[in-house]
């Protein structure tokens, strides 16, 4: 048979290359969408993408075949043409399946590329067999090369698809151009190497083979081109619209994350950071790209603080931890971890807040509230808190402790004659010597004025006596102040636990009594309480007996002091304050009888009476159009009673009062047992009442506890309002307390407001409410009602 040679129609060749280019772009984009899709959508993208890619590859081959013009008429077998289309789609399906697998690796891509390459080769050569009218043989070397190139090109195609698939935001125009050109050239290379391998000869029997299954070629160019353009075009249009919508969603997500002030980190089950918002880079100092892919433990001093004992992340709980900036600087944070699932895989969102300011405010309050500004010694609050802890240890370990009460002899004479500045220098000198003598054996604090207290743990009487003698000798040496030699002596009272008192108040009281005995015996000496003649025990017993009858004889009364909204001028509540109308001594304030009531246990019936009286009065006011919230103080003894919740609930039901009108006030020291306090306060809150911390800043306080407990109000102690604008320490404490209240969205109430300047300054700082004599003194119920009718806010600013 005679060999014949053909020529290529350049226009159709270019058209075939264009189709190969767009088919490649479709393949890249489809592989990415199959990877990110799930469920039915994944199947739809896999099938439609395979069809588009397969038809595109086949169309390139078929149009390129039609571009080859032979000097004899040819046609195509329609059945074989259809078979070649199906094979092209099947080969594409195989390639997309392997490249879109979550765990795709080089071996899987090689397997998929081999299957896909063989399929494309089969498509090509079956398509060649479909040509009727000529006899075709093949050059063995070029034939083998075409199959090898088909496998290699398919593998490269799958690798490119794998490279671009993870770009969730879409493939850039540059990537599409480069990727489409490489893949399109590879696909076209398969065909043209295969065409070069073909040797065409005249088939004398060609005309006899023409039958009904044969199709003419001229019309095929238009049909195939239009069909391919429509199919690929539809896929690309859908893809373009999805990319546009995805861009909008990503922009919306980024805008939300940018607006979030807290740090937001998304991590996988292994703690690897997948995404973060700009606040993370600002807070931790890392560049976002360098942070992605890193373990979240890189951000913490102790990574175990965010996991449980089994290494699982602690979800849905607030955690305080120490974080680490890129420069190595440590800072405190609060974080919460939330779990979610994506495609069945667990992901975790970590919300982090820098709480440096909170901690600084907390430390400022502790420093200023627990330290004596003149001497630098701990103050009475610090001493009392540590004494409470020492009592717990002494009771649990069955050990001894001692309290020393120290008072300078004739200090008032020195202070008055030499001046207050000189007196302050003397107090500073005394404080230094006390610290030096004590070293680390105990705590020395300034109680106020010229009084000091010392706490000694695990010491017997002889050890205490030796230390006390050393203190007396140290202070007997002269002080040299402003060029003058000054002598001062000191009287010391000593009380020992457990002999001289079973609680801290009793022990301090007895040490004070012993100190006065030392002064009475000539000063500049010490006295143990056991050697003191206690003359006032009978008086305490008499007071206790009278207090027992006070409740029965209606001698106790409740006064009410209004709480004022500092910004609106509205009276929104009252505090119930007990008074004892003694038949001989007249009106006795609570400070003089409540401690004895607590010690004797009488505080329980007295406290319950105050609750019932105040709640009943609240109900009367409500009926007359005065729905005022009434605040009632709970004592530490009441707070520890197991039935306190039932007691309050019963009174509310008996008086038929809305629980929201009752506010319970507790002190910070009552919350030292955090677990018990949290549970009890949550039970009280469940009744519908509100909770206040009274005298905030004067006792135990913890920002963590404040955030964990269901608190509604914090009350600034009146002590801090003394010269609040001129006293730097009080000023700093008040500002810090108001700042914490604002940060935790708590209502801040200032007690003890006595003048206009305090009112204006508190309003400037953003305090919410005030209470004090500047608004009104505590009044009996009837007098309070009259005062309310005459109330005029303008009087405050006169």
Automatic annotation (TrEMBL):
GO cellular component, one term: membrane
Residues annotated as domain GGDEF: 399-531
Top-level taxon of origin: Bacteria
SMART domains: EAL, GGDEF
SUPFAM superfamilies tied to this protein: EAL domain-like, Nucleotide cyclase, PYP-like sensor domain (PAS domain)
Domain PAS stretches: 256-305
Transmembrane segments: 12-31, 43-67, 79-98, 110-135, 141-165, 177-200, 220-240
CDD domains noted in UniProt: EAL, GGDEF, PAS
Pfam families associated with the record: EAL, GGDEF, MHYT, PAS_9
Domain MHYT span(s) in chain numbering: 8-201
NCBIfam families: GGDEF, sensory_box
Protein name (Swiss-Prot/TrEMBL): Bifunctional diguanylate cyclase/phosphodiesterase
């Amino acid at each position: 048979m005679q060999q014949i040679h053909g020529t290529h129609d350049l226009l159709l060749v270019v058209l075939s290359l264009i189709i190969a280019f767009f088919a490649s772009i479709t393949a890249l984009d489809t592989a990415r969408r199959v990877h990110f899709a799930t469920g039915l959508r994944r199947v739809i993208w896999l099938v439609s993408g395979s069809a588009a890619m397969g038809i595109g590859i086949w169309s390139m081959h078929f149009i390129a075949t039609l571009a080859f013009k032979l000097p004899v008429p040819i046609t195509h077998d329609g059945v074989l043409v259809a078979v070649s289309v199906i094979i092209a789609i099947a080969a594409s399906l195989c390639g997309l399946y392997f490249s879109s697998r979550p765990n795709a690796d080089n071996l899987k891509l090689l397997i998929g590329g081999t299957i896909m390459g063989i399929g494309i080769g089969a498509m090509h050569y079956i398509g060649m067999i479909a040509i009727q009218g000529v006899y075709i043989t093949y050059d063995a070397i070029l034939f083998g090369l075409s199959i090898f190139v088909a496998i290699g090109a398919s593998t490269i195609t799958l690798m490119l698809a794998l490279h671009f698939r993870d770009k969730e935001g879409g493939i850039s125009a540059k990537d599409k151009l480069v990727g489409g050109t490489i893949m399109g050239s590879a696909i076209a290379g398969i065909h043209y190497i295969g065409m070069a391998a073909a040797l065409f000869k005249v088939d004398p029997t060609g005309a006899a083979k023409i039958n009904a299954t044969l199709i003419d070629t001229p019309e095929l160019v238009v049909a195939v081109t239009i069909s391919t353009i429509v199919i690929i075009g539809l896929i690309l249009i859908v893809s373009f619209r999805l990319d546009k919508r995805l861009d909008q969603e990503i922009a919306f997500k980024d805008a939300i994350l940018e607006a979030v002030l807290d740090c937001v980190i998304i991590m996988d089950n292994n703690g690897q950071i997948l995404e973060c918002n700009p606040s993370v880079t600002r807070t931790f100092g890392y560049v976002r790209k360098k942070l992605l892919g890193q373990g979240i433990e890189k951000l913490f001093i102790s990574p175990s603080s965010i996991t449980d004992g089994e290494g699982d992340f602690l979800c849905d709980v607030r955690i305080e931890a120490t974080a680490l900036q890129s420069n190595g600087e440590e800072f405190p944070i609060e974080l919460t971890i939330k779990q979610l699932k994506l495609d069945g895989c667990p992901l975790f969102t970590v919300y982090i807040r820098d709480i440096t300011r909170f901690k600084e405010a907390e430390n400022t309050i502790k420093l200023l509230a627990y330290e004596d500004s003149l001497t630098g010694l701990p103050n009475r609050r610090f001493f009392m808190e540590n004494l409470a802890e020492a009592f717990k240890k002494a009771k649990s370990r069955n050990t001894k402790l001692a309290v020393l009460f120290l008072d300078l002899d004739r200090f008032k004479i020195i202070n008055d004659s030499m001046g207050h500045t000189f007196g302050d220098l003397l107090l500073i000198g005394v404080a230094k010597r006390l610290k030096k003598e004590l070293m680390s054996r105990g705590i020395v604090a300034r109680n106020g004025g010229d009084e000091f207290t010392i706490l000694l743990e695990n010491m017997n009487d002889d050890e205490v006596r030796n230390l006390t003698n050393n203190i007396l000798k140290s202070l007997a040496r002269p002080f040299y102040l402003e060029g003058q030699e000054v002598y001062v002596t000191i009287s010391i009272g000593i009380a020992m636990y457990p002999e001289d008192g079973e609680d801290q108040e009793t022990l301090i009281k007895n040490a004070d009594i012993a100190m006065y005995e030392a002064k009475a015996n000539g000063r500049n000496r010490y006295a143990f309480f056991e050697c003191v003649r206690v003359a006032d025990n009978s008086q305490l017993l008499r007071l206790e007996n009278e207090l027992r009858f006070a409740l029965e004889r209606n001698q106790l009364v409740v006064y009410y002091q209004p709480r004022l909204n500092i910004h609106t001028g509205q009276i929104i509540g009252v505090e119930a304050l007990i008074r004892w109308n003694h038949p001989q001594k007249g009106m006795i304030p609570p400070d003089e009888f409540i401690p004895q009531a607590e010690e004797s246990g009488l505080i329980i019936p007295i406290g319950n009476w105050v609750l019932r009286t105040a709640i009943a009065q609240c109900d009367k006011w409500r009926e007359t159009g005065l729905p005022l919230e009434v605040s009632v103080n709970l004592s530490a003894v009441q707070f520890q009673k197991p039935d306190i919740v039932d007691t309050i609930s019963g009174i509310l039901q008996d008086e038929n009062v809305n629980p929201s009108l009752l506010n319970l006030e507790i002190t910070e020291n009552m919350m030292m047992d955090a677990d018990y306090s949290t549970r009890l306060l949550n039970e009280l809150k469940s009744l519908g009442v509100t909770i206040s911390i009274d005298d905030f800043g004067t006792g135990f306080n913890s920002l963590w506890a404040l955030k964990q407990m269901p608190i509604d109000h914090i009350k600034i102690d009146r002590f801090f309002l003394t010269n609040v604008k001129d006293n730097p320490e009080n000023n700093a404490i008040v500002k810090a307390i108001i700042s914490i209240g604002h940060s935790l969205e708590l209502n801040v109430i200032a007690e003890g407001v006595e003048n206009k300047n305090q009112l204006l300054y508190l309003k400037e700082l953003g305090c919410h409410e005030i209470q004090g004599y500047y608004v009104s003194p505590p009044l009996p119920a009837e007098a309070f009602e009259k005062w309310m009718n005459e109330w005029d806010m303008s009087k405050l600013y006169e």
